[in-house]
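A.,

Following up on our hallway conversation. Structure tokens first:
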């Protein structure tokens, strides 16, 4: 054990086993960051801690595929209505151990998705049995089709799914849950507006996605402002809000304006500045996708060989990514230096 160094995964396992508390780890991490003379990595997330998490996740996916196939085969049997209750109980037991005790993020995502889909499909099936004749349901495909046709069912299912996602987070406190919560917000808003306005609302889908993306980015900024040093679990929750919100916003704007350079260039510049100010890479990654698109469109306009176009785009994008990666902290210091004495500066991560 001489000079033994412990990994973050090992410390997380100790927290899950109750050897040390989450609060003790947060204080230790805060102390070590304060003692460090180098810029700390503030954008951390843990999707899986090793091959064992991937192994367990694959097992959950395989079990879920088998479950949904079996459930569909039982459509003509009374067992169709009992089997989901058994499956839900089984998923809850798995969640209690894997998400509650092991705190394994990747397998928990698989459990959360499978359990959520089971609950939502079961709710649709019950509603369908009350409003349709029994012979109209010959499998799960019929249940899904029925849900798609009924706006009221879509609203109810969206609310049920969103409530389940929030409840899953409140029970297990897994930051990655915020990725599905973010998608759930869009689902609830879209289904509610469709029910209120009608199918014509589909023409304004990109505006709704833009508004939802901006809402998620705003929530991410708010959460980050509560913990600028990012030493607790909420910082990782905010990470997933940025991951979902940035592409929603930038991509929907691109669709609305046909990726016009006159619109996308200012959007890309704003995304890059926003990324640097809040110390989050997600917006800048989303923006770089459209940098590549605009570069390719520009090179095609001057009749450059397609192979050379790809090479040039890759070189430019690769150079930008490397430049931002290497000079990230220096760029943040340059941008924020004039505002160091302002009161709002304390809500941002140190530069």
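Then the amino acids I'd put at each of the 351 positions:
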């Amino acid at each position: 054990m001489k000079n033994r160094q412990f990994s973050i995964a090992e410390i997380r396992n100790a927290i899950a086993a109750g050897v040390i508390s989450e609060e003790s780890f947060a204080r230790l991490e805060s102390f070590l960051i304060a003692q460090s003379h180098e810029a700390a990595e503030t954008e951390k997330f843990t999707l899986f801690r090793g091959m064992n998490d991937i192994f367990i996740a694959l097992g959950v996916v395989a079990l879920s595929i088998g479950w949904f196939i079996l459930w569909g085969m039982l459509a003509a049997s009374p067992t169709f209505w009992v089997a989901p209750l058994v499956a839900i109980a089984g998923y809850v037991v798995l969640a209690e151990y894997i998400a509650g005790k092991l705190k394994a993020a990747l397998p928990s995502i698989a459990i959360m998705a499978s359990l959520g889909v089971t609950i939502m499909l079961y709710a649709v099936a019950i509603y369908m049995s009350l409003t349709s004749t029994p012979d109209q349901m010959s499998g799960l495909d019929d249940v899904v089709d029925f849900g798609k046709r009924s706006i009221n069912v879509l609203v109810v299912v969206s609310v049920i799914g969103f409530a389940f996602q929030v409840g899953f987070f409140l029970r297990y406190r897994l930051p990655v849950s915020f990725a599905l919560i973010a998608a759930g917000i869009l689902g609830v808003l879209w289904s509610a507006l469709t029910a209120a306005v009608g199918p014509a609302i589909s023409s304004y889908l990109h505006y709704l996605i833009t508004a939802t993306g901006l809402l998620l980015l705003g929530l991410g900024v708010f959460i980050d402002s509560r913990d600028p040093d990012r030493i607790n679990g909420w910082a990782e929750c905010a990470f997933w809000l940025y991951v979902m919100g940035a592409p929603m916003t930038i991509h929907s704007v691109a669709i609305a304006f046909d990726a016009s350079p006159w619109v996308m260039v200012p959007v890309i510049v704003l995304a890059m500045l926003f990324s640097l100010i809040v110390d989050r890479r997600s917006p800048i990654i989303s923006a770089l996708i459209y940098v590549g698109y605009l570069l390719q469109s520009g090179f095609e306009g001057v009749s450059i060989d397609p192979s050379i176009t790809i090479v040039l785009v890759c070189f430019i994008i690769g150079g930008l990514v490397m430049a931002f990666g290497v000079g990230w902290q220096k760029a943040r210091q340059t941008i924020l230096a004039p505002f160091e004495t302002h009161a709002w500066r304390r809500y941002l991560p140190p530069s």
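The radius of gyration is 24 Å. Curious whether your intuition agrees with the design.

B.
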